[in-house]
């Protein structure tokens, strides 16, 4: 193959193709190869599969290298069309089905392929996820300190340290109800844990961040303001970390972590169970 | 194996374990077997791996059936400990690495295992995702009709048809900037497309929902209100669908779809590219 060009990659599924993307991306990240990817979800019928096959074949012909295809399709006649394309096709789920069939001693009975779909079985869990999103929005940024009895975790931290995205991710991915409360500049002279939060000590979780990264993030929003100055960021982070230590609030430095990592670390540290969707 | 009890499943990773969960769940959904799962992220060192191995072995002994283990760990000595447990261990990534190595003609060079991690390479994309979340929140529920130039999609629909979770998911998962605008009861007498939205016809996307499901969702929030009555839900949905048709706004009935499915269908229909994180 030609190492100087990017390799084309297709993520294809009869569902959302999110699983194919995530797994294919994980596998490809192990190789020092540049890629150029296209995602094709909802390839559910023969007609669309034939169009996809034509797209793969055309790209193969144009580039002279066969595209990598990570796919997952349940219906055999649709799957077969993809397999007959000129791509290098890897069924992301099937590789694990055969060994599992032997272990379980049961034949697979795939129905519609809806890893991320709604079914009678998961509608209750799904509604709980949506309710968790509503909860996160209603208790974002200290909007309301009522309803903390219903929180599973209450995130604390300075403005722009990652509280809101983390709360939303906890709700969206795991159905966990997270509130968040910001410490603002005016609090800093005499920083205290709000009285309303004291009864919830066991639910509190602090986020902190390197002042340099915080200043860079704040600069994006309010260039050259006091709010975004390194001096102010250092002051706020220092005060808030001291408060976390005084009150023995568990905390995490979010600087080098993605929202997925922050959210899963919080669940792990607090011993909260993930709701699987 | 004993078919009457649930089979224990472990999702284990040196990262967030989100990929292991999603893929394992997809594979298991093909089998008519009840499961009982535990997720163990950040198994990054020998000490934690040994604790996990002990946990797997204890459960195996207690239940008399070996637990299923879907895992992904890069460091060989940590991986080896999991493989030596009494579980039925499936490496979710490795199964695809070998064929890919042959196809690419390059050896894998796994570094830290951070499918959902922050690196110098993806920090820009990550910041764009966080900016997309900020955008979705600032343009949620018609809060602001300014800044529509920056929207990639503007979702329209009645209250509680799924606009907000969809906007947030588009931002969180795909870094897509989505605004949303609600049609409320007071609009219904003379339903019009707001003047401010008319220049953005090509970005508009409608969500609709079955009135029965809508009434059930609204009942959860405002029992026995006019807002939650089936009559009102029917009226609003009918009016809004008519508006979508009049203005040739593409739309989707969200009733039977999850937020993942709605979001990916919108990207697909509108031809928007997903940002891979």
From TrEMBL, chains A, B:
Binding locations of ADP: 157-164
GO MF entries: transferase activity
InterPro entries in UniProt: Kinase-pyrophosphorylase (IPR005177), PSRP (IPR026530)
Keywords: Kinase, Nucleotide-binding, Pyruvate, Serine/threonine-protein kinase, Transferase
Enzyme class name: transferase
Keyword check for tRNA-binding: no
Entry EC number(s): 2.7.11.33, 2.7.4.28
Reaction catalysed by this enzyme: [pyruvate, water dikinase] + ADP = [pyruvate, water dikinase]-phosphate + AMP + H(+); [pyruvate, water dikinase]-phosphate + phosphate + H(+) = [pyruvate, water dikinase] + diphosphate
Classification via PANTHER family: PYRUVATE, PHOSPHATE DIKINASE REGULATORY PROTEIN 1, CHLOROPLASTIC
Purpose: Bifunctional serine/threonine kinase and phosphorylase involved in the regulation of the phosphoenolpyruvate synthase (PEPS) by catalyzing its phosphorylation/dephosphorylation.
NCBIfam families: PRK05339.1 (NF003742)
Official protein name in the record: Putative phosphoenolpyruvate synthase regulatory protein
């Amino acid at each position: 193959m030609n190492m100087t060009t990017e390799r084309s990659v297709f993520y294809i599924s009869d569902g959302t193709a999110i699983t194919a993307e995530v797994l294919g991306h994980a596998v490809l990240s192990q190789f020092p190869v540049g890629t150029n990817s296209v995602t094709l979800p909802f390839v559910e019928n023969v007609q669309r599969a034939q169009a996809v096959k034509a797209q793969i074949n055309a790209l193969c012909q144009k580039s002279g290298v066969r595209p990598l295809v990570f796919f997952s399709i349940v219906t055999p006649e649709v799957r077969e069309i993809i397999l007959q394309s000129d791509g290098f096709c890897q069924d992301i789920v099937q590789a694990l089905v055969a060994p599992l069939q032997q272990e379980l001693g049961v034949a697979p009975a795939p129905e519609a392929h809806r890893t991320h779909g709604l079914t009678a079985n998961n509608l209750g869990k799904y509604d709980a996820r949506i309710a968790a999103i509503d909860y996160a929005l209603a208790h974002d940024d200290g909007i309301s300190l009522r309803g903390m009895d219903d929180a599973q975790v209450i995130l604390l931290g300075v403005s722009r340290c990652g509280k809101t995205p983390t709360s939303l991710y906890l709700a969206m991915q795991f159905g966990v109800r997270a509130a968040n409360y910001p410490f603002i500049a005016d609090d800093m002279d005499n920083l205290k844990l709000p009285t309303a939060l004291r009864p919830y000590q066991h639910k509190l979780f602090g986020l902190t961040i390197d002042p340099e990264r915080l200043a860079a993030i704040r600069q994006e929003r309010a260039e050259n303001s006091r709010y975004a100055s390194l001096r102010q960021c250092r002051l706020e982070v220092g005060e808030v970390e001291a408060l976390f230590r005084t009150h023995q609030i568990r905390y995490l430095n979010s600087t080098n972590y993605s929202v997925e990592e922050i959210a899963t670390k919080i669940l792990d540290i607090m011993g909260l169970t993930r709701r699987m969707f």
